[in-house]
Amino acid sequence: MPNHFYPVILAGGRGTRFWPLSRRRGAKQVLALDGPRTMIQQTAARLGKLAPPRNFWVITNQELRPLIRRQLPRTQPRQIIAEPAGRNTAPAIGLAAFILLRRDPAAVIGMFPSDQVVRDEEKFRNIIAQAATIAAAGENMVVLGIRPTRPETGYGYIESSSETSHAVLRVRRFTEKPDSARAAQFLAAGNYFWNSGMYIWSAATLVSALREYLPETAKLLEQIAETYGTSRFEKTFRHLYPRCQNISVDYALAEPRSARGEDSSNLFCIPTDVGWGDLGSWAALYEHRAAALPAGGNVIQSAGSFALDASGNFLHSPHRFVAAVGVKDLVVVDSGDALLITTRDRAQDVGKVVKHLEENKRNDLL
Q1: Among 27, 67, 28, 75, which Cα is nearest to 48's?
Q2: Contacting residues for 23 by C-beta, under 8 A, at least 6 apart
Q3: pTM above the 0.90 mark?
Q4: Hey, which end of the chain has fewer CB within 10 Å, N or C?
């Protein structure tokens, strides 16, 4: 399986909710937010035992490609592909599928976001290997589901039904981000999982699904893939890719496939308890880092600190001494040229700061 398994890391996002550290030329996936290695380096490292370096692919953007090349020196430079325009996850993974199917008809693709954390990496790799075996056995799509621990409204949900074997579940339907009431119902029901965004399928299965559900985009991607490795690729890519539909894998492929009915959709979910975290905001990073602290602990990244009657704060000012007195649940991030001050429960709104900066043409802060 390793010779036919291809990890495809999606690293094209801007990470606007991690402003002011995340910028166009240094988005969160190339930042060391959780230890000495960057998020994309951690992602590649945990997958390294599943496939040789020559099988790794990265889909990113023009601004980040040079930095990713330096951070992932073992990945073939021509396999770090920079989109000429962002078109969400379906065209990104679809392009990889069309290219890989031409190179290896037995290819099995794992789709991995570049900004997630996993504590139990050995167990994670075992689950991926199991998923790859299922994907190679037919026109099967496998998604990794995370058992919810709270009524989270920021994730999509997977409703599971009958168990097949070895704790693999059939998927009944996908539900995009619910309101708090529905999220509470899903949590209580016990057969719902958070959608991790990690999918495993054969290149042939993915290409077939794209042709069925996104026929126009599939034609464009196939034309681009036909030129890969030739002098015509860059020009064709720039010309055709922006015409692809801007849509996620969840909306484009998973939801329509689940509508077939669970017995004919060939959609499977593997419950994945590996200490998973989706670092989508400063609040999420606080929760991840604070898991090792006493309840209400402060996460402080600074050149010395003092805390008095302060709890639940995320404070980042690596070149300054930080004193926190009588404050609770704050997020304070100092990037040198900008200062973010918010609360953990409003951390999802940090992206609105970026929108304000764009509208006011503050490119120096973007």
Answers
A1: 75
A2: 365, 366
A3: yes
A4: N
For strand 267-271 and strand 276-278, is the pairing parallel, antiparallel, or unpaired? Answer: unpaired
Mean pLDDT, residues 265-279 taken together: 91
Count the neighbouring beta carbons within 10 Å of the beta carbon of residue 267: 26
Count the Cβ atoms, other than its own, within 10 Å of residue 273. Answer: 12
Q: What is the mean pLDDT of residues 168-193?
A: 90
| Closest CA relative to residue 265, chosen from 216, 194, 212 | 212
Q: Is 63 exposed, middle or buried (0-12, 13-18, 19+ CB in 10 A)?
A: middle
The rounded distance, in Å, linking the Cα atoms of 103 and 352 is 42
The tens digit of pLDDT for each residue in 126-147 reads: 999 999 999 999 999 999 999 9
Average pLDDT value over all residues in the chain:
94
Q: For residues 9, 10, 16 and 17, what is the CA-based torsion angle, rounded to 10 degrees?
A: -60
Which residue has tokens 């989706």?
A: 278
Measure the CA dihedral 188/193/195/196, to 10°: 120
- Decide if pLDDT at 28 tops 80: yes
269 and 143 Cβ atoms separated by less than 8 Å: yes
The C-alpha atoms of residue 357 and residue 361 are separated, in whole angstroms, by: 6
* DSSP code for 365: G
* Other Cβ atoms within 10 Å of 239 Cβ, number: 13
pLDDT at res. 101: 97
Among 121, 94, 86, residue whose Cα is nearest residue 11: 86
Say if residue 139 is exposed, middle or buried (CB neighbours under 10 Å; 0-12, 13-18, 19+): middle
The CATH number assigned to the domain with range 2-278 reads 3.90.550.10
Asked if residues 201 and 135 have their Cβ atoms less than 8 Å apart, the reply is yes
Chain region(s) in the chain for CATH 3.90.550.10: 2-278
- 338: tokens are 């900008």
Confirm if 117 and 276 have CB atoms less than 8 A apart. yes
Q: What is the pLDDT of residues 42-81, one digit of tens each?
A: 999 999 999 999 999 999 999 999 999 999 999 999 999 9
Q: Is 194 left (phi over 0), alpha (psi -120 to 50) or beta?
A: beta
